[in-house]
Amino acid sequence: MAEVKNKQVILKNYVVCFPKESDMNIVEGTITLKLPEGSSDVLLKNLYLSCDPYLRLLMAKNRYVGFGTYTLHSPLAGNGVSQVVESGNPDYKKGDLVWGPTKWEEYSLIPSSQIRFKIEHTDVPLSYYTGILGMPGLTAYGGFFEFGSPKRGENVFVSAASGAVGQLVGQFAKLSGCYVVGSAGSKEKVDLLKNKLGFDEAFNYKEESDLNATLKRYFPEGIDIYFENVGGKTLDAVLPNMRLHGRIPVCGMISQYNLAEPEGVTNLAHLIFKRIKMEGFIVNDFYHLYPKFLEFVLPHIREGKVVYVEDIAEGLENGPAALVGLFSGRNVGKQVISVVRE
Amino acid sequence: MAEVKNKQVILKNYVVCFPKESDMNIVEGTITLKLPEGSSDVLLKNLYLSCDPYLRLLMAKNRYVGFGTYTLHSPLAGNGVSQVVESGNPDYKKGDLVWGPTKWEEYSLIPSSQIRFKIEHTDVPLSYYTGILGMPGLTAYGGFFEFGSPKRGENVFVSAASGAVGQLVGQFAKLSGCYVVGSAGSKEKVDLLKNKLGFDEAFNYKEESDLNATLKRYFPEGIDIYFENVGGKTLDAVLPNMRLHGRIPVCGMISQYNLAEPEGVTNLAHLIFKRIKMEGFIVNDFYHLYPKFLEFVLPHIREGKVVYVEDIAEGLENGPAALVGLFSGRNVGKQVISVVRE
């Protein structure tokens, strides 16, 4: 019965507005690295944890009913890449790499039914399974292709464009023959969008005093697809700039999650005038597409036709800062936590 | 060359906030009831004019690009039921009844290509072709069935429920085996919804101080389809009460058309949490469905299974008051103007 130390990131108190590092604690628990006789659970060694804006919703008490809530003084939970240490389910064996829901700790005991996918392709960075090959990648793929229905020559606008999902939407849009413009919150990110990620244009929304005018400048003929990651004022500026029969896949509204009173969107009547479809989704709607998605994206990654920018924080100790940093835009690219220092 | 008097309702000035009767004028022009040689136009005698909230959008200067704008000192235009006086197009002959775009005057000269449909069924009231058998009817049918995708047993909420479109959506929902609740702005309308139009429940939104709580009372399990006619605060209260994969066909936002600054909608993040589809449309998206719609609705009208409440103003002189009254909810049921006093 090998009992080992198990470092964890736990929730200290429920979050009301902006999350702070002090809302979380790093604690050192212990865990027995042996399954009880007859258990069908799996013991996982966590390698990479995915740091995502939606985790903020789970840090609130009762607020977002559909999303559940963390238990106080227990580790945060989210998606991650893990290695099987011991398995009570014959579908998984020691040493297997998996991705799916796990906890913010070094080792996790989880029901084997909770594992999302076994990792088959290891010629790409393992951390990619928290990003381009994991939840954000599938979200970008499903959201853009299923809800955006892109057609060659259409105009696409992506907010939070250098983020985990946005950077992929932009590249998928280019692969689809679209014109694509992204917005982000720093010069560094704007440069990344234009020089590395292949966006046609990009701008720093913090430097634009009249977002409506900015959008008119980049889209004199209007926007066909707005991939929505931020909500609030950006959405309000986009609506009058949409084209007839435009689509707005709604992936996130990160600008709104920390506000006690969200910003009001006043231009929704344009949904009628332009006959716009606005549709919310989460990755759960797309898991059935995962094999098809891998078939599409893996060759592009191997050929360098799709790239992925990651921002890797080393060690669980840096987890709280990484999570909090999402909401000030500190991360450049997909925020990952590497649990095991390499 | 029979020149006759032609009474008209003209636009005196562009409207900024609430339209007033004094924004329009009744003038007496003249018209020659004879087509010029070789003309392919038609001369119409207008019988009924349709009084619709969207006309307000055309009374604004440049505001709603997709919708065009009225010319100052010219008659208003909208849908109507008319009789052909003279025709330069062999498809129409003197005496034919037609419905489609016409002008707010006794006689109109219009391009024959502008006629929407010839009226074939006259065993129902002719005024119905401004309502249940015209634009509002087709809007309700297309919006509810194509964008609402109703399933038996689902929960439907309709705002402006006793209006031209809303009263039909409620009845179509009942025919589809749904539970349906409507909101309206007076006790008289609420009684109408419950006692004549077959809604399961109805309430006067003006008497509800907490619309969110009201909706929770009527929809303890949430709303599957919200047929949106009003926008603003009502939409904001509906969003947190939507069910997973709910649909919001957006037909109108009448509460917002007269506001210099529309109300802000703050709960849009629920589009993500509940994976809601919100889709704007106008009747133009549905004209191809008109024959199918007639086949569906005419038998129901004849058997009394679908009823239609009209509010008929007598004479063009009462047109401005009828139009302005839409925005204070003065009309009970579909507002029609009868041009020729009977």
From TrEMBL, chains A, B:
Domain of life: Eukaryota
Alphabetical list of CDD domains matching this protein: double_bond_reductase_like
SMART domains: PKS_ER (SM00829)
Keyword Nucleotide-binding: no
Residues in Enoyl reductase (ER) domain copies: 42-337
Record keywords, A-Z: Oxidoreductase
Molecular function (Gene Ontology), one example: 2-alkenal reductase [NAD(P)H] activity
Keyword Oxidoreductase: yes
Protein known as: Enoyl reductase (ER) domain-containing protein
Taxonomic source organism: Vigna mungo
